[in-house]
Amino acid sequence: MPQAARREAIATPWTAQEAAGLAAPPSQREEPVFYTHTLCPYAERVWIALLEKQVPFQLIHIDLSRKPTWYRSLNPRGLVPAVQLGGMVHTESADICRWLDGAFPMGPQLVPGDAALRREMEDLVRGPCSGTVSAGLDLMAGCTGRHWGIGSGQTAAQKAALQAELDQLAAALRRHGGPFLLGAQPTLPDVLVYPFLYRYDVGMRGLAGHDLGAAGGGAIRGWLDAMAARPSCAASSADPQLLLAAFRKHMELDFFDYTTYPCFKLHPHNAYLLQ
Ligand SMILES: N[C@@H](CCC(=O)N[C@@H](CS)C(=O)NCC(=O)O)C(=O)O
């Protein structure tokens, strides 16, 4: 997407108050309101989907360490992401991505129209996409066993478990000729798994010298590169060097607080949205 369109999609309208997550909840709006935290991989799925679908939206940051009181009345579980449109609030990242695809038929389809392809997509979502998320969390935790923790001492079994999931993703890439899991365009499985695999790749390469991209004879690196080249992913991904430095500092994946990290500190490429 050209830079101008991306700016409009992310930034309309944007105020410093909203950026701090302090604004009152918007009432009925004509465009979706996306409640997010820039460091949450689940929220990043929705960010990518909105940008891929080229849906104009308003983005509101929620500081997860200092949630505005109104947010729980919007989403009782208090989690990001949430998307509000026309008085309805949608939650759960995968459900939101599916809903967006149906509600906004413009832009590329994330859920294929073809029935056989859709079945394959569902198998990927339930199987290796979900498996990659959990095996990757386990690998990142290493010998600490801390959920969402980052540690050293990754075991051969932890590496093999993630490798098995990545091999299945690589097989899908081979079947469809890439560069994305179901062929020429990114679809739901790409969107769901990328924010997680991006973090695991940055973390494992930087902290353990372990190259996840080598899986499938390098097919996974090709896929990571193809996703990284999408303007949606370039906009929503944290800067890899800054993310790695944050991993080193906190040794966990969920250091979600805008006191430590103002919303775009690890995303300096988005800082222009705050001007
Ligand atoms: N299953 C949810 C998970 C969302 C989630 O766990 N979000 C975390 C941030 S990554 C959150 O909002 N945590 C805030 C809290 O637990 O209070 C989804 O897919 O949307």
Nutshell version of this structure?
InterPro entries: Glutathione-S-Trfase_C_sf, Glutathione_S-Trfase, Glutathione_S-Trfase_N, GST_Omega/HSP26, Thioredoxin-like_sf. Helix content is 51%, strand content 6%.
Describe this structure in words.
This is Glutathione S-transferase. GO terms for molecular function: transferase activity. One of its GO terms (cellular component) is cytoplasm. Residues 30-108 form the GST N-terminal domain. With 275 residues, the protein is mainly α. The protein has two domains: 3-109 and 264-274, Glutaredoxin; 115-250, Up-down Bundle (Glutathione S-transferase Yfyf (Class Pi), Chain A, domain 2), CATH 1.20.1050. 51% of the residues lie in helices and 6% in strands. Strand 1, helix 3 and strand 2 form a beta-alpha-beta unit. The structure holds glutathione.
